[in-house]
Design goal:
Blueprint: H1 3-12, E1 18-21, H2 24-27, H3 31-40, E2 44-47, H4 65-70, E3 77-80, E4 86-89, E5 92-95, H5 102-123, E6 129-133, H6 140-157, E7 166-170, E8 173-175, E9 189-192, E10 205-210, H7 221-225, E11 246-251, E12 256-257, E13 271-274, E14 289-292
Parallel strand pairs: 1-2, 3-11, 6-9, 6-10, 7-9, 10-11
Antiparallel strand pairs: 3-14, 4-5, 5-12, 7-8, 13-14
Length: 293
Amino acid sequence: NNLSNVIVKTREAGQEIILIIDEAHHHATSDISHGLIEMINPKLSIEVSATPVITDEDEKVRVVLDDVKLEGMIKKAVLLNPEFENIFKNGKIESKLSEGTEELVIDSALKKRQELAALYKKEDHINPLMLIQLPDRIGQLEDTMKERVIRILKDKHKISTENGRLAVWLSGEHINKENVEKADSEVDVLIFKQAIALGWDCPRAQILVLFREWHSPVFTIQTVGRIMRMPEPDKGKHYKDEPLNYGYVYTNLEHIQIPGCLGQMGKPPFKLQAIGQELFQGMGKNRGVALIV
């Protein structure tokens, strides 16, 4: 019952083969992949990818982003450090939070998570997830950063792996991650690195935390994409409480860059929009920046 036998029997039964390749930008480009595709010889191949590599214009199918938002599949925007002053200058974003410590970043993000959790109680049983992304490299800095973050979460906010409110998903270290994707999971915070991104799906993720040591001031679609999904896309609409329709990034990175904002990459993947007090009642002064992907 190996793959080649399945293919032979399928054809003997007079059936056509349709090949669907998930994460195609990773899985459809190697020599091994090409050999396998050639062996399968499908009538139709469908390559699925959030970040496709397409050189032939005829292969592109364009989808209007606003249409996807109107369907309630993704959030309206992602807000950067919304409670802090942000200024767009010379192609970069200067944020007051860049002067803050890791502890201030965590405190601000958790305060937002609590606000969202209270609003979700009026809508459904959804526990918004806060993601903390550690630098994607090996060394003493990573261990020190991880230990500092875990200590702040446990000592100041009573969030730990022991009480089930903290999950860790790192190379060789998987704690409390089994049901983290469930909408009502008790996990409030997940510590991870870049490796989690491939194929991972957790629509309740709504807040992303990045620290200064992340060392990449460039925000890409991959960076914010993890918090763009709506937790209940089947409803086909956004929530009545506006804050639930946005993702949030908290970071003390300096000189944040948004690729494409000044046209250096063709059509911008992001648009910048100043956010005023009228957007969220009760939030006070808000000079944040919306990253609309």
